[in-house]
């Protein structure tokens, strides 16, 4: 299995009605040097200014971003290149990140290389600590900037800390 840590920035709460503006991915290994960054042109006229502001981009900028089909195709090719076996989608908030990535893959390519499931980093840590109110974010090394590659990398660092320092049983 190959864990791919993903982070999504969007201009609203759901795909289709709103758009995934950018996303980043990092293959979780000891080096964290295999990254992907995609910026996608909106798929809808609708957007929530406050949601878009989190990404650091203006609506005018997003209209110049790449065609979503091309970005998703490039992401699928990147996954194939960096994974010798089944890719596993994992993110800080997989309820949010997964729905955008899954929708975009199925909408533009007709398939999702991650299959039908995802994993949630926060839930892994809560289980390890046996505490539904604890948070893993102190395990990040890379600052959380809302640039999706930075955020995915910080989350991958936290997962590696869980493995190497806290005893999480996982194969890389």
From TrEMBL:
This is Exonuclease RNase T and DNA polymerase III. Keywords: Exonuclease, Hydrolase, Nuclease. It comes from Chitinophaga pinensis (strain ATCC 43595 / DSM 2588 / LMG 13176 / NBRC 15968 / NCIMB 11800 / UQM 2034). Residues 3-160 form the 3'-5' exoribonuclease Rv2179c-like domain. GO terms for molecular function: exonuclease activity; nucleic acid binding. InterPro entries: RNaseH-like_sf (IPR012337), RNaseH_sf (IPR036397), Rv2179c-like (IPR033390). Signal peptide: none annotated. The lineage of its organism: Bacteria, Pseudomonadati, Bacteroidota, Chitinophagia, Chitinophagales.
């Amino acid at each position: 299995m190959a864990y791919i840590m993903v982070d999504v920035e969007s201009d609203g709460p759901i795909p289709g009605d709103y758009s995934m503006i950018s996303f980043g991915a990092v293959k979780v290994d000891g080096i964290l040097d295999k990254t992907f960054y995609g910026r996608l042109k909106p798929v809808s006229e609708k957007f929530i200014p406050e949601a878009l502001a989190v990404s650091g981009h203006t609506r005018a900028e997003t209209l110049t971003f790449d065609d979503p089909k091309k970005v998703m195709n490039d992401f699928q090719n990147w996954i194939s290149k960096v994974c010798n076996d089944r890719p596993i989608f994992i993110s800080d908030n997989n309820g949010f990140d997964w729905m955008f990535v899954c929708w975009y893959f199925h909408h533009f390519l007709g398939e999702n290389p991650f299959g039908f499931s995802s994993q949630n980093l926060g839930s892994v840590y809560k289980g390890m600590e046996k505490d539904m109110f604890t948070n893993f974010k102190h395990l990040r090394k890379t600052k959380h900037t809302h640039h999706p590659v930075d955020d995915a990398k910080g989350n991958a660092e936290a997962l590696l800390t869980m493995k190497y320092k806290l005893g999480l049983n996982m194969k890389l």
